[in-house]
Amino acid sequence: MKKSVSRMLYFDGLRGLMALIVAYGHFFGQTKLFMLDNYKESIPSTITKFYTLTETTPFIFSINGNFATTVFFILSGCVLLNAFKANETFIGALIRRFLRLGIPVFLSCLVGYLMLRYGLRDDYAGVYSLNDVIKQGILTLYTSDFYTRFLNPVIWSMSTEFIGSVILLIVTRIGIKNNSHGLLFLFIMTLLTYGYYVFFIMIGAWISLIFSNEKFNDKLNKKNSLFTFFLIIIIIFLQSCPSFHPWDKLFIPEEYFVKPLINLGNFSIPGMYAFHNYELVRGFGGIFLLILVMSRIKVREFLSKGLVQFFGKISFSLYLIHWLILSSITMPVNRFVFNYTHNVYIAISSSFMLYIGATIILSMLYYKIVEKNAINFSREAGVKIDKFILNMKI
């Protein structure tokens, strides 16, 4: 049990770091677009060079939200197989997972709608109504529509999370009755989901199963500085595809290499969004990152430290809230400060400090008010549904 808790801790820490990368990456990109639209001629060469350095070298890891989201998917696969064993029935576990994801997502869309309604956002100028809160806040978990997410654009990944959860829940229930049949079903679903983001959730499940073997785990956890260094270099290099210059001379899988074995899009299955060829390469970077974390005790100790754990705890809330802050107060502050000071450095740093402060504070509040209550409510609902179904069988 102690080992399982420890694993959850360092997974939370990694999730927190990935959420920070997503949040900073969005600030980085939106600030660039804002500067080009509002004061292009005033951008200093040092800032232009900083952007070039970040976007065209392995330093892209600091803004690579696509890579971070892939790691989220792999992490989900790693933890869900064991998490689903907490419920005794399929329906209880399914409802629990739906509420766990759905309540925070729904309320973030409601906040996004209210901000649009009262003119507090500048990232969307189209038509919207209260019905969109229902469509995007609830249906987003089981719809195949990739693009209709304007109330909170970051929730596109939630349907992938949910359909991946359903698949692993089925794996778990089959595995409880017959472990071999559960593994066979996971293998089949891994093949069928190849080419889609859900594939990385399946891979995360396999990583979890492989590292549950104590002999293999102990062998890989032996101290080896060269192995650690090699893994870090591989991760940084793979996540930089295709931006880092050497990739234009290296092999990147063609589209047909990542083409799904079965076009599940024809069946309107939720969450089945195909990834690009370069995202497969980045996905391998995410896989090696999980291997690094699970095989290096120093990395796990770092991810279990207090500050990293803090961001891990609020990571889901931070993921849901940061775009709403970015699209409301951050860029207007940038504009105001630049118009007043005519200094790009001060404008960027002021908006960045405000963005950091507001994101952390509001993410903490969202976690305490919304997410924490959603966790407790979903857990209680799952237990009650389990009892109800088991009593009916009796």
Helix content: over 70%
By DSSP, the count of extended strands is: 0
The overall pLDDT average reads 88
Strand content: under 5%
Q: H/E element string? A: HHHHHHHHHHHHHHH
The gross shape turns out to be globular
Give a verbal description of the structure.
- The protein is built from 15 helices and no strands.
- Mean pLDDT is 88; it is low at 1-5.
- The relative contact order is 0.16.
- The longest helix has 50 residues, at 344-393.
- It is mainly α.
Task: Summarize the model shown.
The protein is mostly helical and 394 residues long. It is 72% helix and 0% strand.
SSE layout and pairing:
Elements: H1 2-38, H2 45-56, H3 65-83, H4 90-117, H5 131-137, H6 158-177, H7 179-192, H8 198-211, H9 214-220, H10 225-239, H11 277-295, H12 297-303, H13 306-313, H14 315-341, H15 344-393
Helix pairs in contact: 1-3, 1-12, 1-13, 1-14, 3-6, 3-8, 3-11, 4-5, 4-6, 4-14, 4-15, 6-7, 6-8, 7-8, 8-11, 10-11, 14-15
Keywords for this entry:
394 residues, disordered N terminus, single chain, 72% helix, 15 helices, 0% strand, mainly alpha
